[in-house]
Amino acid sequence: MATSLLLLLDDIATVLDDVSVLTKVAAKKTAGVLGDDLALNAQQVSGVKADRELPVVWAVCKGSFVNKAILVPAALAIGTWLPWLVTPLLMVGGAFLCFEGFEKLAHKYLHKADHAADTARHEQAVADPPVDVGAVEKQKIKGAVRTDFILSAEIIAITLGTVQGQPFVTQLTVLVGIALAMTVGVYGLVAGIVKLDDAGLYLSQRDGAGAQALGRGILATAPWLMKGLSIAGTAAMFLVGGGILVHGVPALAHAVEGWAATLGGFGGSLASMAANAGIGIVAGAIVLAVVEGVKKLRRKG
How many CA atoms lie within 13 A of 180 on its CB side? Predict the structure, then answer.
């Protein structure tokens, strides 16, 4: 009896040790996607009324939990019965990210009048009627949850590749652990970022020259940070989407890796990122052209 109990405890300790090691490895591999996820979601939920920022972040966070609840079982099922399907699904998600990024740029720079009208409607909605504010929030939440689904799928797919071949319990524990940690981490940081201006205002009104100076500094920096995150979020769509497409085509991945290796070091890393972004932009343009062509055909029909 005692021997059986000791063997059981030893097995549990071994599983926990494997889970700990594999979780650390998966966390390192998904760190880059985590940064993109943070930039994209901070950008997506910005621009709403100050008193509605945290409710919007929470709504997107709940959507992200739902995404993970769908993706983790799906990943386990696909990894067990249809492992060949992982790459095509990621490719579709990558192409969609590139499409969203290019559509955003095209709408902003090729349809400036429409973009200005959208901006004016957004500002009016935030300033005036609560019904319009609700519509703006729903649109933002829907877009953020949709983007989160694609980035979450990549995080889960990377994690699945890390635990491939491990016992089912280990795979499940690592996937659930990464899903929870990434969701709480990303949306905790997003909540902090969107409330920076409130923190700056609070400090600027406190007693003490140091606190007031810090508050004014935060207030001066916050708009630039949000603008930077908006740019980073769009760039992340091309970097992540292009990276998925590149790695999904072995010949293309080897070509990019070979080019980066010839430059080496920091230059090689920049070259690899530039290649991913360039391919992402081209892919986004192609998908947008196809989508617009289909829309025109439907209108004619």
Answer: 7
Cβ pair 242, 276 in contact under 8 A:
yes
Q: State pLDDT tens for residues 34-54.
A: 555 666 666 666 666 667 778
> Taking the CB of residue 218, how many other CB atoms lie within 10 A of it?
19
DSSP 253-280: HHHHHHHHHHH-HHHHHHHHHHHHHHHH
Closest C-alpha among 170, 154, 113 to residue 246: 154
Question: Residue 35 CA to chain centroid, in angstroms?
Answer: 7
Q: Which residues, including other chains, have CB under 8 Å from residue 82's CB and lie 6 or more apart?
A: none
* Percent of the chain clearing pLDDT 70 (strictly above): 74
Q: Are 275 and 246 in contact (CB under 8 A)?
A: yes
How much is the pTM? 0.70
Is the distance from CB of 48 to CB of 56 less than 8 angstroms?
yes
Structure tokens at 68: 């993970």
Residue carrying structure tokens 């409330």: 195
Give the integer Cα–Cα distance in Å for 273 and 91: 17
Other CB atoms closer than 10 Å to residue 19's CB: what's the count? 19
